[in-house]
Amino acid sequence: MSIMCTSENRTLIVKIIGEIDHCSSNEIKNKTDKEYKRLNSKNIIFDLSGVTFMDSSGIGVIMGRYKNVNANGGIVAAAAINKELKKIFEISGLFKIVKYYENIEKALNEFSLRG
Amino acid sequence: MSYENKTTIKFQSVPENEKFARTSAAIFISPLNPTLSEINDIKTAVSEAVTNAIIHGYEDNSGEVLLECVIKNDTVYIKIEDKGKGIENIEEAMSPLYTSKPDLGRSGLGFTVMESFMDEVKVSSKVGIGTTIEMTKKIIDNGFKKE
After folding, report:
1. Phi and psi torsions of A102, nearest 5°
2. What is the spatial distance between Cα B97 and Cα B81, in angstroms, rounded to a whole number?
């Protein structure tokens, strides 16, 4: 599993490649939180196009970030979720609080409009 | 034609083995020609059950987790067993969003996911003795021809 963080207009883009489970989730949490602070971010977009497996640990990661970002007045979004990942997102009810975009470009377009 | 197969794997309760366990289960069921979706369902359910054994069963202690996979015709039977601390209240543990470890940033959805992704989930547990999770799933859409 690898994580790449970039930033655009105070939106942190977290691209995860590989499998998200309990074992890899701590690294994702730590790196995301660290970069969010370091780059003085407001929003977070998780780019999941490279994720090949995710269990409920991934839901825990996104829920946890949502709490922090929401308290900071920001928005959390997820982009490029494959069919299998979508199933676990739907079960969790996470789409009620996290916006979903087909791909990262669409997410960024909307986020840049918001400023 | 009837087909039966069984495997048992015992491994140490370290997080690195979550991937090992779910991947092993996925490879074992491959003779049934499951769809990608069915493979993912089983991998996810195994991952949830093994994670529970590691985080909740053994907490920070080291122990052994047992994974047993059985195939009988078109049905997969999976058992995950730990000899950890056990669950005091199974009903509470299985309710959606309940987590005994909110500080770990867990979603509390482990059992909900297992129940959604498998046909049947049975949990038995004794405090101080350990926990056993038994799950079954029928592999529906397959080109299963053992002739």
Report:
1. -60, -40
2. 23
Report how far apart the first and last C-alpha atoms of chain A are (Å, whole number): 31
Q: pLDDT (tens digit, 9 = 90+) per residue, B84-127?
A: 999 999 999 999 888 888 777 788 999 999 999 999 999 999 99
ipTM over 0.90: yes
What is the reported pLDDT for B15?
96
Give the H/E segment covering residue B108.
none
B107 close to A (CB below 8 A): yes
Q: Which residues, other chains included, contact A12 with Cβ-Cβ below 8 Å and sequence gap of 6+? A: A5, A6, A32, A35, A36, A39, A41, A43, A44, A45
Question: Count of H helices and E strands in chain A?
Answer: 4, 5
Cβ of A55 and B55 within 8 Å? no
Q: What is the pTM of this model?
A: 0.94
Q: Which of A55, A63, A64 has its CB closest to that of B113?
A: A55
- A92 to B107: CB separation less than 8 angstroms, yes or no: yes
